[in-house]
Structure formats: structure tokens, C-alpha cells
Amino acid sequence: MALTTNKKVFVTRFERESVQGFVQTPGGFTADSVELLTPAGALLRLAYSEVKAVCFVRDFDGGDTWREHRSFASRPKAPGIWVRLVFQDEDSTEGILANNLMLLESNGFFITPPDPTFQNQRIFVPRLALREVQVIGVIGGRRKAAATPKPEGQLEMF
């Protein structure tokens, strides 16, 4: 039995006002929409075609946090794939994808934002919202260098 939790989210939409509410993970992300329970108790189904991003937030007091902290000031230190997401409206954001193909979703991408200590902790971006995904770099995951054989007759010092 899979565990489910309700997470606070702020849904940014292309042509309409943003919506805040709770999404049940993982069940709230269906094949064609995201199910959102508003603080007033209304259940909304927002089609991926109108959703720009679903921001998992710490609390609702921060307001519209989508406009801030959307690119890295320097090379990130967290392991993963550093990507730039370009939206249908030519807007863009950067983030870190998990470097694990088993974690890729068919409906979109879960990224860690440039500043996870800010209001946004994680962001889900539907594939329909994107025009382009650019890989900027791969962070971490380095392999150990192969041991070089020591020449015959050389004494081991350490």
C-alpha cells in the first residue's frame, strides 16, 4: 500500500490567476491533470495544458513566489542533472533533476529549485508547459579513478 500525504502547493497558470491549495501525493497527479483541494474546501482539476508549474511551498503566507529565485548564481552543489526549462511563453527556470531514470515522470518533471531554503521546496513542471529542456551539466556522481598498476620492482611506501 502506497503512502499518501497532502502537500501545500501554489499552482502557477499561464493565462489565469494562480491557485493555492493542497495536492495529495502521489495520487494528485493524474494522466491529464492535477487535483487540488483549495483552503476553502473546493476540489479543482487543473489540466496540464493550463498549468505552468506546481510549486511545493512551506506555507501560504509567502504569496506568489514563482517570480523569485529561478536561476543558480553559481554551479550548484546538489547531485543531479542541472537543467534549464524553457516554457511555452518563453519564460524559463533552472533546477536540479534527480540523476535516476526510474524517477522520471511521464507527465512532467520534478525539480529542486535553485534556492530550496526559500519558499519553494520542489517544483513540478508538466511536459505540456515546456518548449525546451536544456541540460546544463551533471553534478556529482563521479567515479573513482582506476588504480594505476605500479611498476615491477618498485617498493610500496605507504
Query: Looking across the biggest beta sheet, what order are the strands in?
Result: 2-1-5-9-8
Rg, Å, rounded: 20 Å
Distance between the termini: 53 Å
Could you say which structural class the secondary elements and strand pairing correspond to? mainly beta
Envelope shape: elongated
Overall average residue pLDDT: 84
- The succession of helices and strands, N to C, reads EEEEEEEEEE
* Percent of sequence in beta strands: 35-45%
Characterize the structure shown.
The protein is an all-beta fold and about 160 residues long. It has one domain (about 5-140). The chain contains no helices and 10 strands. It has strands at about 5-15, 20-25, 35, 45, 50-55, 80-85, 90-95, 110, 120-125, 130-140. It has a 5-stranded antiparallel β-sheet with strand order 2-1-5-9-8, with no helix packed on it. Strands 7-6-10 form a 3-stranded antiparallel β-sheet, with no helix packed on it. It has a two-stranded antiparallel ribbon with strand order 3-4. β8 and β9 form a beta hairpin. The radius of gyration is 20 Å and the shape is elongated. The termini are far apart.
